[in-house]
Amino acid sequence: CMSRQLDRLEAAGQVIFVHGADYGRHDPTTCSYGRPASQIQNVQCSSPTHKVAQSCDGKSSCAVKASNSVFGDPCVGTYKYLEVAYSCRCM
User: Boundaries of each SUEL-type lectin domain copy (predicted)?
Assistant: First the structure.
């Protein structure tokens, strides 16, 4: 969820390979608790990002903060979250 540190990605004895990451909003339920409807209704908000791959690829662990200061603001007024698709590979 926005302004929270991404749970640390860890790959014990392996390395992280990021397939893709997206910062924005695709549905009205993810990270919606306590948010006004006006902040979660825009589900066409998306900003694919390579910053997660730049920070995490080839490492055994990493952390990235889901925030506008890191990824920019693809949709002003919408509460956003970071989705990351990744796998672990043997070194």
Answer: 1-89
